[in-house]
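P.,

For your records, the input lines for the assembly:
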Amino acid sequence: MNSAIAPTLPPSEGALDRRSFLRLSALAGGGFMLGFYLKSAGTALAEEVGAASPGEFVPNNYLRIAPDGTVTIFSTRPEIGQGIKTSLPMLVAEELDVDWASVKVMSAVLDQTSGNPNPQSAGGSTSTPQSFNQMRQLGAGARAVLVEAAAQTWGVPAAECSTAHGEVRHVASGKKLAYGSLVAKAATLPPPTGVTLKDPKDFKIIGTRVSGVDNPALVTGQPLFGIDVKVPGMAYAILEKCPVFGGTAVSANLDEVKKLPGVKDAFILTGVRGVASGVAIVANSTWAAFSARQQLKVTWNEGGGANQSWTEMTRQAQAAGAQAADGDGDVFVGAAKVIEATYSFPYISHANLEPQNCTAHVTADSAEIWVPTQNPPSAVNSVAGATGLTAAQIKVHVTRSGGGFGRRLQTEYAAEAAAISQKAGMPVKLTWSREDDLRHDLYRPAGFNFLRGAVDAAGKISAWRDLAVTFGGGGGGGRGGRGGGAMLLPPGAGAVFAQAAAPGAAGAAPARGGARGGGARGGGARGGGGFPGGFVQNFSTRGAQVASNVPTTAWRAPGDCTAMWVSQSFLDELAHAAGRDPLEFKLEHLGAGPAGAYRDRVIPVVKLAAEKLGWGAKLPKGRGQGIAFSFSHQGYVAHAVEVTVSPAGKLKVDRVVSAVDVGSVIVNLSGAENQVEGSVVDALSTLMFPALNIEKGRIVQSNFDEYELLRMPDAPAKIEVHFLKTNNGPTGLGEPAFSALAPAVCNAIFAATGIRVRELPLSRTSLKWS
Amino acid sequence: MNYTLNVNGKSRSVDVAPDTPMLWILRDHLDLVGAKYGCGGGFCGACTVHADGVAIRSCQFTAAEMSGKKIVTIEGLSEHGTHPLQRAWCELDVAQCGYCQAGQIMNAAELLAKHPHPTDADIDTAMAGNLCRCATYTRIRAAIHQAAGQSAT
Ligand code: FES
Ligand code: FES
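Structure tokens returned:
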């Protein structure tokens, strides 16, 4: 996912990517296909197409045009709810100059051909910036060949021809030929050496509202998801893992379990690479496997993790925080006002509504898997590790995912399914129960931030110190994912106090093209690059880590999703400490910061959100406005909100105004707005409800009755999304609009009630007022 | 045990353990996978189907409890996917991951059958049992209103 392809402004004309060029090829059925031709020719091909002519064909194909004019575009990025299966094909169709109604979209299987310039993964909001120009070039290249085919047919120069609605037209003579009638000839022509891309003002599909390509199948209940897969001869499996992270199965009543109705096999899996130790049950239906599990009795070696508790972790974090003042030097001496605050947030789960699952068919020399994943290449590694097969022996079908949020970048459930299939000697579908999913997730890291800030007599922030205490370093019981603390700590922070690296990068052009956006690895409250680093005098972050073996991984807008809540709330605290209007105070500090992309792009979104909300309206007690901004995953976002808090402490979010700068082009307006709306409500949900507790090394919560998420009655009545188009390359939207929402709401709660929320979730703070 | 069930207007017989929830009968035995497993505990609504016109959580009912009832799943809500809710869901592009949406539509279909013109408050109350992890609630609300408009005309 670290593609080197930087999101630059779409060139109006350009040579094709050096690492790939377009190549055409005839199909057995008479259609023509076009794809990026890569240096090593493999055979992976979306099998739904049917076979191509042998020897002539190229791998990694994205597009097919049939003689009847049907255009089939292969979607290579996993669809996890971010709308990519619709938006990337829109780019191809736009440049091909066909009507969207004539396009069919299909999912491609994983192409393991080396050097794929267009990774088949989805994460870090990187798909749009990485694929924007490539998908367009693909469509434009096909269009160029079709034009050439028509020009040769008519004996006229290609330059005299134009295209529209899936036809080539010769303007002078009024002749027209439909693409379908040109495919036979087009397939005999050489690939284009360069292509001309459309001027954005001529876009007909890009920028419109296009309904998701899978919607008709979704609303009629057709099989699309991993959990819907059924293959011939398939059995159904569960895997019971130790409730304590890192524990191992010692023995189980396997003979009893094997006699239960519908059970085909039961065995202990231990020492399998990438698979947590546990007991597998294989049965003839999901329910037979789930029921037999009720009778399963396992003796576990729980290991050292069994002593772990959230209470104790909290105590240790606070002890670490008590030393926070060390090393401040004299930056707080002489300040007009000094404030201190402790912010904390718990572990939470991704809670994909579709629990983790995978269908695997492993034989002596092959494996075929069907998996809902954001990260198909990782699934290959997981299966290879668990089975001993080579990558070339593994075929991966990527299904639609019932939610991603970062969870499905990890693929240990594919290793589990493969290991069970291999041992049972039959294809199996492994389905995690909801309880498995909550108790064996790789969680969003928990953390504490101990902050101290000062304002001077002129009402400017004069110092800001943040000690971020995180948990980790204990390993996750042999599971994947990152250590607990790494994501929240400043670079270089270890298990002891460490001085943060200079926050530096603010003001410079933000890092681009990385999997997690500009500087999401930032320390503590600094978040994804930019404010407060570089904008505040005497700003420092330090990190400390409390040992834990709770496994963690990326969770929507990793790092930023908590760090922005901390920093944008504390900034609001400082504004109030200075006795200033929070908007003015924020804009003043942004304006005084270093010139550069960050400052130039963040200020306009803040102003736009404030203006559209009607910032500064006089509201009675119990109602309030709040604003917060973020730079996350290459997108600049400000949310301005209005809330009502009843005297009994019930929060209602009345209005949300979101101002978003993700560059010059919005590919699918409907999908883009949906991502912002969903980010807003997901962020509100995450602010209000979920928290995991840990006792005796176990996650306490088991299902959605104990692990609550926002439901319809708490959804805001109105979310207004404003896209600010700027002269920057288009970037993704799965994550950028998440992180500033919670602090905007908390800042509005303070304006309404005078109560500052410093602990997540919100239910831990009483909002009662009188 | 053998049970005869009326599903989407057809008589279907299944041989399952008596405690097998309707959800898994539909998914594993009848190959109707529109109803989804989200929690197995009646908390999420992803498994919602109709039994004699009432929206139920199919993970909470067994075959014995369902025999003699007319069961309708998302696959049988309309013949060609043209129920006003299905159309509104496509027109307003409600889904993100889409995993909850069959359950949402089945729950909303019962609401509209009872209250052809629901208010926001009616919708919020009726839909509170259906989780959407992708948080598409504002579009779900809008789509129910839109479908209600279509129903009325
Ligand atoms: S699966 Fe039935 S309510 Fe969640
Ligand atoms: S659309 Fe993903 S759970 Fe509702």
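Two observations worth noting. DSSP finds 15 helices and 30 strands in chain A. The longest strand of chain A covers residues 461-473.

Regards
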